[in-house]
Amino acid sequence: xxxxxxxxxxxLADIADDSRSLIVRSCGYYRIINRQEFHTDxxxxxxxxxxxxxxxxxxxxxxxxxxxxxxxxxxxxYRPDEPQHYYYRAADRTEVFWVHFTGRDAGELLRYYELPxxxxxxxxxxxxxxxxLYRQMIQELQLCRQNYEELLSLILRHIFIVAxxxxxxxxxGAAPGEIERATHYFNENYRARINIEEYAAQRHMSAxxxxxxxxxxVKQTPMQYILSLRMSNAQSLLEATDCNITEIAAAVGxxxxxxxxxxxxxxxxxxxxxxxxxxxxxxx
Length: 284
Known about the structure:
Blueprint: E1 2-7, E2 23-31, E3 37-42, E4 49-56, E5 58-63, E6 66-71, E7 74-78, E8 84-89, E9 95-102, H1 106-112, E10 121-123, H2 128-143, H3 148-170, H4 176-189, H5 196-202, H6 207-218, H7 222-240, H8 245-251, H9 257-268, H10 272-282
Antiparallel strand pairs: 1-2, 2-9, 3-8, 4-7, 4-9, 5-6, 5-8, 7-10
């Protein structure tokens, strides 16, 4: 089993602490590799909250006296004093993140971000954002840089917000994990020639289903989103550099500067040259 864990002030103490609004006490990551099974049994629960996220594989959780097999994309929320019985199997190649937190406003913040009050389990999809945020909390706890405790609470709130979005947008039939993954990919590769049908096929999705789900979540089609990335980056280059139009067109993915100029005018109402003059005039 591979682990990467960190504890506030290097303390494993299980306490409720109302000295601040929201306090992250510990955070970690488990990847189950060679141990047959890894069990956690806390008949009386803990004094703080725990939020687990299954990134890959499966987890076996006994909740309300019933065994539930939970797959990737599941979040499990344990409140103070709730019994905790769960285990992972090496055969499932499970990867799971967890965080323990407390604070005088912890319960109210969970309600504010509309995380289920009467449920322990909810599905948020395979979100790269959630995994990255957990890793950031682990790192902050390990490095203990200036103001890290405040930053930890902000990162945890960010997880609450992302989970809320996944729950809300998922209820409309979209696939938040796939949409997040797509936006990450488009943000990194917007200047390349992206074929949406090929991208969907590589992710084992119907192109029609992916385009519809993307539009429901982002309020734009994938190609509209890519175009907006190209144009916003072109605007930035026109404002901040002295690159010529041909160079800027190439930088955002267009071999033909005339075609780029037509798209830019359609998008902004100005030609690239007019836009640069207008912005330079405002900055004087």
